[in-house]
Specification:
By secondary structure, the protein is mainly beta. The protein has 4 helices and 29 strands. The strands form 7 sheets. The protein has a 6-stranded mixed β-sheet with strand order 22-21-20-28-23-29, with no helix packed on it. It has a 4-stranded antiparallel β-sheet with strand order 1-3-6-5, with no helix packed on it. A 4-stranded mixed β-sheet has the order 2-8-7-4, with no helix packed on it. A hairpin with a 2-residue loop joins strand 21 (248-253) and strand 22.
């Protein structure tokens, strides 16, 4: 009897378990509740109570699981400081340098898609006024029209050590409309950093630049002097090509040869530099004064256009008209007649490319705006920051007429110059001034 009762009990237990098994096949009897998304993780700099920071300090932000939604920076009186996030989201940058010897508070809020937010706050103070300032200069000025080869250059009154260049370069901001991104490249001595795209600017482009260098560490205890900015337009395509072999200048306007001009270049003792240079200044009248040089003279010249810091110009030289197109008699400048010099002044712009070839010496990098005097491959090597992947040099194409090799168009065959084909010339030599 006991065994029978146990058997009945076992059957009842099995039957009771069957609905549970069936329920397990048709769905979970327990409703699953989704876990709420956690708030983002946020880290900001400078660290709380940081002191004696440069007035160029930025609010660094690192966010996981969200993005920065708001940054509020206030001074000791509670006044809000203007600024904006960098495009890459790495930091918030003030619209102008902070004040010296002041306390600031930064409050940063990050959010995720679920609306969860996290806020962090830091308070810091800036350094006293520096005893040493580096004077800077920006070559692009607002409300001007420049040539398609116009590089943006920032120059310094002292050498910038290599360890300071990346921090400076991060503060050089360029935008173009339509977009045509480029790269900054430093001259070897650090006196000049230049910006250009892989090819010449498109006519009609608007170029805006901000050199936010006020208070930026420049190395050896020096700091940048001020912020500089400019917005300008790019005009039509004008190229000048000067060939020492023929003593002729070819003037291309919108890729059409519009005039051939006889020239006289530098004599053998004071040769003109070969290379790709850019018109830097235009003067209706200026004075060349080489007092103190081995060949001193003082002379007033008209319709002069500067090509190098060392003093090479294109200018009117009525005294050498008989030699123009025949032989070189100048002190390194490109001599043309009064009429041709006037035509050039009316035709060219600051930022137009001038290519000179076949002389005894080559152009020294940094002697003027020499960003186009090297290939793109060489130019990007001068960047102190990693070059974006889409701007890194492409593998060279095979040589040949169809791929830019011998037989292709370009300066050697009477066409406008190509961006990345520097002329072949002898070993470098320095230029002297006012020639």
């Amino acid at each position: 009897m006991v065994l029978r009762r146990r058997a009945v009990l076992l059957v009842m237990l099995v039957m009771a378990a069957v609905p549970l098994v069936l329920a397990g096949c048709t769905g979970n009897p327990f409703e699953r509740v989704a876990r709420p998304a956690p708030p983002p993780k946020l880290t900001i700099t400078p660290a709380p109570d940081s002191r004696d920071l440069p007035t160029s300090v930025e609010i660094g932000t690192a966010v996981t699981g969200g993005k920065v939604a708001d940054v509020v920076v206030t001074d000791a009186s509670g006044t809000r400081v203007d600024g904006a996030m960098r495009a890459d989201g790495s930091s918030w940058m003030p619209s102008r340098a902070l004040a010296n010897k002041q306390t600031y508070t930064a409050e940063v809020t990050a959010k995720n898609d679920a609306g969860k937010a996290v806020t962090q706050k830091t308070t810091f103070s800036t350094m006293d006024k520096p005893a040493k300032r580096t004077v800077t200069n920006l070559n692009l000025q607002s409300d001007q029209t420049y040539g398609v080869a116009m590089p943006i250059t920032v120059s310094f009154d002292s050498d910038i050590p290599k360890e300071a260049r990346a921090g400076i370069q991060r503060r050089l901001l360029v935008s173009t409309d339509p977009p045509q991104p480029g790269v900054w490249s430093w001259d070897e001595n650090g006196r000049q950093v230049s910006y250009r795209a892989p090819d010449f600017w498109r006519p009609g482009t608007t170029v805006s630049v901000r050199a936010a260098l006020d208070g930026v560490p420049m190395g050896e205890g020096s700091f940048g002097d001020t912020d500089r900015s400019g917005t300008a337009k790019i005009g039509n395509r004008v190229f000048l090509e000067i060939d020492n072999a023929t003593k002729q200048m070819s003037v291309f306007k919108d890729d059409v040869l519009v005039r051939k001009i006889p020239v006289s270049l530098g004599k053998s003792s004071t040769p003109t530099s070969s290379g790709k240079m850019v018109i830097m200044e235009k003067h209706e009248s200026t004075v060349f004064d080489t007092t103190g040089s081995p060949d001193p003279y003082v002379v007033t010249v008209t319709n002069a256009q500067r090509l190098t810091w060392g003093g090479e110009f294109i200018h009117a030289a009525p005294w050498s008209v008989g030699a123009q197109g025949e032989r070189n008699v100048s002190h390194g400048c490109t001599n043309v007649s009064d009429a041709n010099a006037e035509f050039l002044m009316e035709t060219t712009k600051v930022g137009d490319l001038v290519t000179i070839k076949g002389t005894e010496v080559t152009l020294d990098q940094g002697n003027g705006w020499t960003a186009w005097n090297v290939s793109w491959d060489e130019f990007v090597k001068g960047s102190a920051l990693p070059v974006p992947a889409d701007l890194k040099p492409a593998p060279p194409p095979p040589s040949g007429p169809a791929n830019g090799g011998p037989g292709n168009g370009g300066p050697a065959n009477g066409g406008p110059p190509a961006a990345d084909k520097p002329p072949a010339s002898p070993a470098p030599s320095s230029s002297s001034g006012g020639r």
